[in-house]
Amino acid sequence: MKELLQYLAKSLVENPDAVVISEEERGDTIVYHVKVHPSDIGKVIGRQGRVAKSIRHVVSAAAYRQRQHVVVDIDS
Questions:
Q1: Residue 34 CB partners (closer than 8 Å, separation 6+)
Q2: Domain that includes residue 49, residue range
Q3: Which of 6, 13, 16, 33 could lock onto 40 through a cystine, CB 3.0 to 4.6 A?
Q4: What residues contact residue 32 under an 8 Å CB cut-off, 6+ apart?
Q5: What's the CATH number where 48 sits?
Q6: Is the pTM for the entire model greater than 0.85?
C-alpha cells in the first residue's frame, strides 16, 4: 500500500523528493500520513478535494483486496 501511495503522490507533485509517507497502526486500521512540500499541497488535494478523494479511493480499493482497512491523511 505504501508503495502505491508513494507512486501516486510523487507523480502529482513538482517536488517528489519532499514527499514523505509515514505509517501508523490503530487497531485494525492502517493510517498513512502523506506530507508534501507546501507549494504542492494544492496539487495533491485538488479542486474541492477531488484528487485527494481519488487517491483515497484507489488506495482503499487496493487495501480491500488484501482485506485491510486504510485511511489516508494528507498534511503539508
A1: 5, 9, 19, 20, 21, 44, 72, 73, 74, 75
A2: 2-75
A3: 13
A4: 1, 2, 5, 21, 22, 23, 24, 59, 70, 71, 72, 73
A5: 3.30.300.20
A6: yes
